[in-house]
Amino acid sequence: MKNKKIDKKPARAGGESILQRPPVVVVLGHVDHGKSSLLEAIKDFKITAKESGGITQHIGAYEVEEKGKKITFIDTPGHEAFSAMRARGTEVADIALLVVDSAQSVQPQTKEAVIAIKRAEIPTIVVLNKIDLPTANPEKIKRELLQIDVVVESMGGKIPSVQVSAKEKTGINELLEIILLVADMHDLKSETEAPVEGLVIESYMDGLKGPVVTAVIKKGVLRKKDIIATDLALAKVKSIQDFKGKEIHEARPSQPAIILGFEKVPAVGEKFKSYKTTEEAMQKLKKEEPKREVGSTVLNLDPAKKVLNIILKGDVFGSLEAIEGMLKNLPQDKVILRILKSEVGDISESDAKLAEMSKATIIGFRVKIGPAVMKFMKNDLENLPAGRQGKLRIKTFDIIYELVQDVRRGLEKSLEAEIVREDIGKLKTLLVFWGEKNRQIVGGKITEGEMRKGIKLEVFRDDKKIGSGRIVNLQRDKKDIDLLKKRDEAGILFEGNVKIEKGDILAAYVEERKKGEL
Ligand code: GDP
Description:
By secondary structure, this protein is α+β, with helices and mostly antiparallel strands. It is built from 11 helices and 29 strands. The chain has helices at 4-7, 35-46, 79-86, 108-120, 138-147, 172-186, 278-284, 317-328, 349-358, 371-382, 400-413; strands at residues 18-20, 24-29, 61-66, 69-74, 95-101, 124-129, 161-163, 189-191, 197-206, 210-219, 222-223, 227-229, 234-241, 247-248, 250-251, 256-262, 271-275, 306-314, 335-344, 361-365, 393-397, 418-436, 439-452, 456-461, 464-476, 479-480, 483-485, 489-496, 505-514. The strands form 6 sheets. Strands 3-4-2-5-6-7 form a 6-stranded mixed β-sheet. It has a 6-stranded antiparallel beta barrel with strand order 9-10-16-13-12-17. It is elongated. The chain starts with a helix and ends with a strand. Bound molecules: guanosine-5'-diphosphate. Guanosine-5'-diphosphate binds at residues 29, 31-37, 77, 129-130, 132-133, 165-167. Guanosine-5'-diphosphate is lined by residues 29, 31-37, 77, 129-130, 132-133, 165-167.
């Protein structure tokens, strides 16, 4: 890397065909840390409302320009999507942004994202978001990242970090500059005269236009009338649009493009190539849709684990495949996600019956709820006592990322909340003033941590727990106080199930109900 400048030969192999290409960037991180907001902020910041007039639909990728250089963003955040696309063997992105809420802390999905990035072996930039919040503490986050082997530059590592507020759109310029810097260091090239290769980022069926495919070009230049094909879907390119929906003549490496002309909807994450003739492309096309192993987890169910049953319905085969891929990437160490059925088509009565029998949630992607099911749901509701939720759970989505996050939340909810105990402090009893029924006033000295009013206590005598209670009131020098620290003398109004004696140790603790973590 050091000698890069000297080593760099003019990029020319067989003519002018190898050219610098813009970086393709993905955004990963824990839910609610601001991935979507960041993508939105960059888009708003760089693309004026007038220009964006054509962006009416979420198409999965966009492009911005900073200092005359372009950057492509994959507009589907989250490592589930990223990993599902990579599972097909194509590198989706050149650079990963790891978004962390700087007023929070490193969370399970931050760690999952780091694992996904490491697997992909692409450079990372740490984005410390929500810096506008008064509680933001980016230094703390950097220290926490250190513990999961993400060493940022200011901690002596190689990973750049940048502080931004997606909400107030601050730090965005700086972030874009760092992206370009990292891209420069990695010298991204592509052959423009090679046959076209590209990656399907989003795909759906439009009633009027037919299959609509957002792709990022990896190699070559895509032009109208080109013949391209994935493993299953073939296209004679009818029209190419940029991400704003404007007709363009060609799409170059790293450029996001909307392609019309596919005969059927290809799957998200599928790779396509160009062919000289339709016949050649047809020969490569796989005739059969691959066999699906839906519900295969049924065979090796671990009885100790909880199971969340779902029925998946999608608009096209490609969506289902992408969704299943992402769902499989959700951690299932504690709860198993079992897909009972995964099918193309609207939500039907038979889906509803299966859902009812197996207590499954029906998840629809870009599908409608059939009229019979609507009636079914209505009856279900009418026969229930007021205020109770119907037995049938149906959820529909238009954006894969939201669907995956919802299923994740469902898995988390099915976990019991864990009660986490934290020791706060200890007090040695020196005096016992008076007692009545279950109350006593005791005096003592704090030997560890602190004591707080209202906090729970355990009473120890000769290292044995003999009872428990709580601090009803806390005093120092006969004055009420909320908190006292180590070495302070404290008077405590104790309420509990034991009679305290001189020399007893009172240990204060808090219990927190922590949401289940996958
Ligand atoms: P995602 O799940 O990672 O995509 O997170 P979202 O982009 O949906 O953001 C989660 C929440 O955080 C939303 O309520 C946002 O409005 C909020 N949020 C995102 N970025 C910022 C920020 O920079 N500052 C503040 N104060 N809030 C933010």
